[in-house]
Design a protein that fits this description.
Elements (H helix, E strand, L loop, with lengths): L14 E5 L32 H12 L5 E5 L9 H9 L6 E6 L8 H7 L3 E5 L5 H8 L5 H13 L6 E6 L8 H11 L2 E6 L17 H11 L2 E3 L10 E5 L5 E5 L12 E4 L4 E3 L8 E2 L1 H4 L5 H13 L5 H4 L12 H4 L2
Parallel strand pairs: 1-2, 1-10, 2-3, 3-4, 4-5, 5-6, 6-9
Antiparallel strand pairs: 7-8, 8-9, 10-11, 11-12
Length: 337
């Protein structure tokens, strides 16, 4: 590869998020509300999931189109058995400069050391509150907050540094605990990131009134711990980063609703069943699995991946309006966030 594939707006392909399962052991209201994803919900049958070999093949071909960062997601990725084997396979691919995973942390304590040894470089843990009652209410799970925090501690013990903690902030739900989250992250050497509540999918009951603008969150943090802006670490970086003036790390804000960053988006998403999506808010993807299981050679699969990206013109967050409110969107738990 000499130059990365570029879409119709000139955006290069650089990041690939890979969902390994659509299942999760949490029922967060903003992602997988229990009234929809209850006991009778039909998840994807195992035989329809991409195998580790198929995922590795897609990642390898994607690097030839410009992908340098790969992130494993779900659902909850640690529900996929032997995930460390997939990590080892992807880590061995020439061209993958950064291999990360996003997890809810519930199972992390039992996997952190194996994942690190297999070649996982970074971990992000979803953590919406460090108040046990608020955490339980938001995650709608029997898993206690302490189990997630133990998982974060285990990741630190395994040698992961710069662990990121992601909090989706909803007004009137967990916005009162912002400083507690930052304090926890600062004390433990982690990076806190606050994400504006987004209208992903069609089941989370999204209301604009529940969005807490990132600038408001930033002001809350800045009042307690003065912040200094940090330049983006790479083109297309999602979070707006700030370092603490006292030197105790940094914090980031993801502003998809109030300050869209579609113009620099370099991410593609591969679902657990092998569909390629070019936007978090998309209504449909492109079937890569059919080529993988239809006997097509690497050239054909690579060309297909490249064509999907080159035809891309998505910029939902910049176009968000009353006119987009009723559009069908795939659920975040299926797409991989």
């Amino acid at each position: 590869m000499t130059e990365p594939a570029r879409d119709r707006l000139g955006r290069p392909l650089h990041d690939l998020r890979v969902s390994v399962t659509d299942r999760c052991n949490f029922r967060c209201h903003y992602c997988m509300p229990r009234e929809v994803f209850g006991p009778g919900f039909a998840f994807v049958p195992r035989e329809q999931l991409l195998s580790f070999e198929e995922i590795t093949r897609v990642v390898r071909l994607a690097t030839e189109l410009g992908v340098r960062k790969v992130r494993l997601t779900g659902g909850e990725p640690l529900l996929r058995r032997d995930l460390d084997q997939l990590v080892a396979s992807i880590a061995a691919i020439d061209g993958v400069d950064d291999l990360a995973m996003t997890t809810n942390g519930a199972l992390l304590a039992g996997h952190a050391h194996r994942l690190r040894k297999a070649g996982l470089r970074r971990i992000t843990v979803s953590l919406d509150s460090v108040d046990p009652e608020v955490f339980t209410r938001m995650a709608d799970t029997a898993v206690p907050l302490s189990q997630v925090l133990d998982g974060v501690a285990a990741a630190t013990d395994a040698g992961f540094t710069g662990i990121k903690l992601n909090a989706v902030v909803q007004r009137g739900v967990n916005d009162g605990g912002i400083l507690d989250l930052v304090d926890y992250a600062r004390r433990n050497g982690h990076v806190m990131r606050f994400i504006e509540y987004m209208d992903v999918g069609n089941t989370n009951g999204w209301l604009l009134d529940q969005v807490v603008p990132a600038r408001e969150l930033r002001d809350v943090v800045h009042t307690r711990w003065p912040l200094v802006p940090v330049d983006p670490g790479y083109p297309g970086e999602v979070a707006r980063r700030y370092r603490f003036a006292d030197g105790a790390g940094e914090v980031g804000f993801v502003t998809s609703v109030t300050e869209p960053f579609c113009g620099s988006c370099s991410r593609a998403r591969l679902t657990a069943v092998g569909e390629l999506y070019t936007c978090l808010f998309a209504g449909a993807g492109s079937d890569v699995r059919a080529l993988l299981r239809g006997g097509h050679d690497d050239d054909a699969v690579r060309d297909f991946l490249g064509q999907v990206w080159q035809q891309r013109s998505d910029r939902y967050s910049e176009l968000r309006s009353a006119g987009t409110a009723g559009l069908h969107r795939v659920e975040m738990s299926y797409l991989g966030g």
